[in-house]
């Protein structure tokens, strides 16, 4: 899953803090306490996020109401799990414990470990 | 001119030959010394090239006469540029070497730092909300069916283990994994690894930097293994490695990484004797020499003149 862009993250943040479905107008008002965005900009971001599956929308009256499909915590967990799977840029940011072993050597290394453990306890 | 050629020759020899000396088997026996040697060799090459450029810009005779003379020499050099074509070539080479090296390195370093900081910030935020902190472990726990453990350095440093890893590891193995990750954070291993990655990216194709990156990444793992072995037990560190690696999807494994993993396990089970005192001393001397050597070579004319008493350093009469 691609991480959110700056504006996408801001929209998600508003919706997560509200906790209830919101119209584009409501999201826009909340965002524009600190910046000045156009209605159409926020509308595009919301429909993109819905397209990506991050938001669900339901028709209410004459417009859509948007709400996040995942909680903030669920979203973060998904992001972290992605880190575990994919190599790439993120490998430079964090340090994994595990080193890969080929399947054949796992068995022989396991028995070497057990032998060492017994020698130590003996 | 001779000085510049000497410095460049030193840099070229180091860039090609140092990987052979440093890649030998001794590095696993004293990973800390080997790490210092790789970093020093890389720094030595950079310093040599930059100093070679500088010595081309300032004639050595002028350096020996103090700061005013350098400024004078600077003016003379600029004036001289228009007279002799040979001098122009030297100045252009000097500017290219010094400014080129520093600008290229700075450019790549700033980009790398920005990207790393942004990514780290994002992951810290994700850990804060997506993983639960487990004070008894001193680590964050992430729900996942993939067994893994990692650490995220930075000001808000954290160690993360997945629930699958918690299920798979025994108590001792888990302690070993956590000690390994904490050793990374405590030793600030990400700084060394980040520096050599930046060098490789800035100057691709230089054997010293290419192999240095791979070796430093390997050596910090060995260092963290050793730290964990001291705190917990070397057999338990090896056991944790085999347990976690054995559960991973084989398709995701790279051949090179497989060899590295097997090496770490056997090394933990049968640790080699640390290097002897003499070997450690000579390696330590080499580490110091590869950095101070080029500096000494470049500043030799200055030091020589001061020692002979023929000139005073600017400000020397204040003392």
Automatic annotation (TrEMBL), chain A:
The keyword Cytoplasm does not apply. Keywords: DNA-binding, Transcription, Transcription regulation. GO terms for molecular function: DNA binding. GO terms for biological process: negative regulation of DNA-templated transcription. It comes from the Bacteria. Pfam families: Penicillinase_R (PF03965). SUPFAM superfamilies: Winged helix' DNA-binding domain. InterPro entries: BlaI_family, WH-like_DNA-bd_sf, WH_DNA-bd_sf. Belongs to the BlaI transcriptional regulatory family. This is CopY family transcriptional regulator. It comes from Modestobacter caceresii.
């Amino acid at each position: 899953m691609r991480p959110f862009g700056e504006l996408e993250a801001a929209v998600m943040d508003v919706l997560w803090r509200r906790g209830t479905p919101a119209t584009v107008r409501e999201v826009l008002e909340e965002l524009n306490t600190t910046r000045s965005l156009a209605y159409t900009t926020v509308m595009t971001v919301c429909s993109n996020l819905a397209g990506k599956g991050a938001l669900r929308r339901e028709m209410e009256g004459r417009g859509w109401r948007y709400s996040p499909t995942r909680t903030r915590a669920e979203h973060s967990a998904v992001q972290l799990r992605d880190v575990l799977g994919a190599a790439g840029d993120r490998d430079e940011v964090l340090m994994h414990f595990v080193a890969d072993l080929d399947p054949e050597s796992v068995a022989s290394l396991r028995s070497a470990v057990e032998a060492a453990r017994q020698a130590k306890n003996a | 001119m001779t000085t510049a050629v000497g410095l460049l020759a030193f840099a070229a020899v180091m860039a090609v030959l140092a990987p052979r000396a440093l890649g030998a088997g001794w590095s696993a026996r004293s990973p800390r010394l080997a790490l210092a040697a790789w970093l020093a060799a890389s720094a030595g090459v950079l310093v040599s090239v930059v100093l070679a450029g500088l010595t081309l810009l300032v004639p050595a005779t002028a350096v020996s006469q103090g700061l005013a003379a350098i400024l004078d020499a600077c003016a003379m050099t600029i004036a001289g540029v228009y007279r002799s074509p040979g001098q122009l070539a030297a100045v252009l080479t000097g500017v290219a070497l010094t400014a080129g090296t520093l600008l290229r390195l700075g450019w790549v370093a700033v980009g790398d730092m920005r990207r790393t900081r942004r990514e780290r910030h994002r992951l810290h935020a994700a850990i804060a909300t997506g993983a639960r902190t487990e004070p008894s472990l001193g680590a964050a726990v992430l729900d996942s069916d993939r067994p893994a453990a990692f650490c995220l350095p930075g000001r808000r440093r954290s160690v993360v283990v997945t629930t699958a890893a918690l299920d798979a590891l025994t108590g001792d193995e888990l302690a070993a994994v956590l000690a390994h990750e904490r050793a990374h954070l405590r030793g600030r291993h990400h700084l060394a690894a980040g520096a050599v990655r930046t060098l490789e990216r800035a100057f691709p194709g230089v054997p010293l930097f290419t192999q240095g990156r791979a070796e430093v990444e390997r050596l910090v793992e060995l260092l963290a293994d050793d730290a964990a072995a001291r705190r917990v037990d070397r057999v338990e560190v090896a056991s944790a490695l085999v347990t976690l690696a054995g559960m991973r999807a084989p398709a995701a494994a790279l051949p090179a990484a497989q060899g590295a993993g097997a090496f770490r396990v056997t090394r933990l089970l049968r640790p080699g004797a640390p290097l002897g005192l003499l070997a450690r001393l000579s390696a330590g001397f080499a580490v110091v020499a590869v950095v101070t050597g080029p500096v000494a070579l470049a500043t030799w004319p200055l030091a020589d003149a001061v020692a002979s008493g023929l000139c005073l350093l600017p400000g020397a009469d204040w003392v």
